[in-house]
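Predict the holo structure. Ligand: glutathione.
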Amino acid sequence: MSLKLIYFKMRALAEAPQMLMQCYDIDYQYLMSWNHFDDVWANVKPKIAFQQLPILEVDGAEQICQSVAILQYLENRAGLAISDTVRAAQASAILQSAQELFAPLNPAINFAVGDDFIAKKEAMRPGLSSRFSDLARCLEGSDGKFFIDNTPRAAEFATYHHLDLSKFLDPSLIQEFPRLMGFIDDMESLPGMATYLANRPELIDVGVAPKLVIDDVAHPTGLKKS
Ligand SMILES: N[C@@H](CCC(=O)N[C@@H](CS)C(=O)NCC(=O)O)C(=O)O
């Protein structure tokens, strides 16, 4: 069974799926939209079920849209499904709540520049702090290292991604939450995670002229081939 994760040049919704796949030895290919479809995004968009990426293509045939659905599919595929239906629903609520951090955090880090970046940074501070506090409370209520137990699942990879991205905005935001700092350390200690973080494209010049360094070449973030 082959898996292709298709996305753009940005550090956002393709991070958590890749972390999960690398931590659980699931083979996949990561492809930019223009390389996979051999066309510009404007022509591809209307052909995608919900007109956005990422999608996960399974066996070159089926496409899964929506980052939460992709993460839940991968979680099942890695054998991480929670059998207790209430706990499973609670884990899904944490995943969805973490993923609500996507906007405005991810677009601002990947695209906003100058005064716009500064304005967005200040505007989102209270919202981030509030959701970080909710996530910290969930972890404090757990008997394990992670939200449900000692196993990292979709909710943990999504949460890690957004916390990690918030460091570009202001590293002191998460420092107010010692439980989140401990969670970050636990996630970064996972063997597959360390490898993923060491090898992924570096995100540079955030707030000024954001770029991803892919194979030693700095590319402007975005939806276009460069
Ligand atoms: N709810 C969707 C959001 C997907 C989304 O916002 N994708 C953006 C990139 S991060 C996109 O496809 N932008 C191009 C467009 O909307 O035309 C998910 O979680 O997958």
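DSSP finds eleven helices and seven strands in the chain. The first strand starts at residue 3 and ends at 7.
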